[in-house]
């Protein structure tokens, strides 16, 4: 599984509609509205790099109201859940 984090700048007046449209795309697991220089963060979870291109370039960037995106591909996931599983003995 490949995870990509996509920073999205959107038309300010349309942020809720843009977020809902992005969240409905196949491959998008979550969308967060955030403070700061970007408006939304979309989490993409797919099987291949080609699938990232299909979701981001072919679909997400074409959502009406999306002005700009920056995509980051995750190398590893570090979470409490992962760490607890790694150090669990006898489970």
Characterize the structure shown.
It is built from three helices and four strands; from the N terminus they run E-H-E-E-H-E-H. It is an alpha+beta fold and 91 residues long. A hairpin with a 6-residue loop joins strand 2 (28-33) and strand 3 (40-46). It is globular and about 50 Å long.
CATH fold descriptor: Alpha-Beta Plaits
Which word captures the global form? Answer: globular
> Which ranges are low-confidence, i.e. pLDDT below 50, for 5 or more consecutive residues?
none
Structural class: alpha+beta
Contiguous helical run count: 3
CATH H-tier superfamily: Lrp/AsnC effector binding domain/regulation of amino acid metabolism (RAM) domain
Q: How do the SSEs run, as a string of H and E?
A: EHEEHEH
CATH class label? Alpha Beta
For the record, the count of structural domains works out to 1
User: What would you say the CATH architecture is?
Assistant: 2-Layer Sandwich
| Helical coverage, percent range | 25-40%
Q: Identify the strand order in the major beta sheet.
A: 2-3-1-4
Write down how many β-strands occur, each being a DSSP E stretch of 2 or more residues. Answer: 4
Biggest β-sheet strands, sense, barrel: 4 strands, antiparallel
What radius of gyration results from the CA coordinates?
Answer: 15 Å
Strand content: 25-35%
The N- and C-terminal alpha carbons lie at a distance of 24 Å
Mean pLDDT: 91
Pfam family, one: AsnC_trans_reg
Protein name: Transcriptional regulator
């Amino acid at each position: 599984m490949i995870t990509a984090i996509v920073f999205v700048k959107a038309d300010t007046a349309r942020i809720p509609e843009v977020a809902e449209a992005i969240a409905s795309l196949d491959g998008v697991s979550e969308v967060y509205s955030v403070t700061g220089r970007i408006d939304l963060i979309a989490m993409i979870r797919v099987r291949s790099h080609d699938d990232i291109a299909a979701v981001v370039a072919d679909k997400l960037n074409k959502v009406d109201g999306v002005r700009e995106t920056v995509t980051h591909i995750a190398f590893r996931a570090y979470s409490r859940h992962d760490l607890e599983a790694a150090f669990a003995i006898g489970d």
